[in-house]
Amino acid sequence: MSKNLGGRAYLVRKLGEIGISRRLAVRILNEVFGEMNQALARGRPVEFPCGKLRRVKKVSRRWELIGVKPYTVEWVPSWEGLKLFLGREEAAEAAWEFMSDPGFRKAYAAEMHPRRRGGKLVNK
User: Fold this and answer.
1) How many whole angstroms separate alpha carbon 80 and alpha carbon 124?
2) For residues 83 and 25, what is the distance between their CA atoms, to the nearest angstrom?
3) How far is CA 46 from CA 58, 67, 77, in A?
4) What is the pTM of this model?
């Protein structure tokens, strides 16, 4: 499922294609990634059209005892984002991994089970 999207160098190159200098592109990206880092450090998700990044605690409690609060970041795709990256058939097979996210589950159910709205069966 992990496609290499190119990282910062790719983004700098894409910004350069629309006429932004390399130096300015790097400053813009540093600012954007800095804001994302601050939001994640506060425990807030960072949302994109293709999903969101959220803070997840996956380390031992020992780190907290010494005053460090480490965390990892997890990508939770939107249903549209997963279809974009994997294609509809593969996305349908991989969807079960992301069903814990209410937004994903709602969008998935609306498309894959069109007679269900809000978790309830709609009579026609």
Assistant:
1) 27
2) 29
3) 18, 25, 12
4) 0.62
Tens digits of per-residue pLDDT, 66-113? 776 677 888 888 888 888 888 888 888 888 888 888 888 888 888 777
Instruction: Name residue 29's amino acid.
Output: L
E strand or H helix at 52: strand 51-56
Joined tokens for residue 10: 């790719």
> Phi first, then psi: what are they for 118, rounded to 5°?
65, 30
Summarised one tens digit per residue, pLDDT across range 54-66 is: 888 766 677 767 7
Residue 110: how many other CB atoms lie within 10 Å: 13
Phi, psi of 46 (to 5 degrees): -110, 115
